[in-house]
Amino acid sequence: NKQKQRMSQPPPPSPSWETLILVATYLDPKTLAIASCVSKSWFSSMSSDNIWRPILATHFPSLATLPSAAADVAHRRLFAMGHAAATHRLRRPLKPGLSLSDLVFAVSISTREGEVASSVRPGNMLTADVSSLGVFRYSMRCDGAVLREGVEEEVRVTWNVVLRGWRGVFTMMEREGKVGFVAGGEGWFSQELPAPGCCSGAVKSSVAVDLKVVVGEEKSGDGVRVEEVSVGIMSVVDWRYVGVEDGLRYLQHFLLPNNATYVCKNIQ
């Protein structure tokens, strides 16, 4: 009989919405999200701006101070947007679909009179040098033409990255300028790179390339020669050379724009 009486007793009343809101003010965002799935009334109580306003101000103060245009957006939704954006920023990028051994690097320096120096190097010949530095920067030895020392000349420099088998090419730099070649001297060229993607032709990216020319004295003493060319990809934010993987990720946007199979194969 006692068991029948217990079974016939009505269920305990649900807590009032005032009680729910009072309890909710002590819950963390994850627990609030779980509790809001219990029922429609719980969802309504747990979604109150009075609850989420201080949470939003604590975790994402910039979103909490958005102008009046965002006044109609629930604070709970603003928190979810901020959390999703923060998670995305912390996500580790995928391995690049390219490796240095997939590439060939070609640098050419010329004047109006002809080619001054050039160098073509497969990426696998530069792997050890690049890996030792840990950044996307390398040097190539040259044995260029003899130049008149100290005379300013109009110089054209180009740096191309070729995908092995001539399956693609990307011009990293193409610049012109006046340079006076002096033994023991250096010449610098730089150029901001385009942004990868649909707007690459109109928008600059946050990276740039630089090219350094090292000049030495000709052994016969009749002039000077370009001995070495150094190239690299730099971040314009802090003017440091980017890591090898970041440089390869940038290049693959231009060298592998539609070759998804190739990218996935190399990522795996």
Automatic annotation (TrEMBL):
Major location (coarse): nucleus
Gene3D superfamilies on file: 1.20.1280.50
Origin superkingdom: Eukaryota
Pathway: Protein modification; protein ubiquitination
Name of the molecule in the record: F-box protein
Compartments (UniProt record): Nucleus
Protein purpose: Acts as a component of a SCF E3 ubiquitin ligase complexes.
PANTHER family, A to Z: F-BOX ONLY PROTEIN 48-RELATED, OS01G0800800 PROTEIN
UniProt entry tagged with the keyword Nucleus: yes
Domain (F-box) ranges: 18-54
Keyword check for Nucleus: yes
Keyword line: Nucleus, Ubl conjugation pathway
Any single Gene Ontology cellular-component annotation: cytoplasm
Organism lineage string: Eukaryota, Viridiplantae, Streptophyta, Embryophyta, Tracheophyta
Known partners and oligomeric status: Component of the SCF-type E3 ligase complex.
Organism this protein belongs to: Cajanus cajan (Pigeon pea)
GO biological process: gibberellic acid mediated signaling pathway; protein ubiquitination; SCF-dependent proteasomal ubiquitin-dependent protein catabolic process
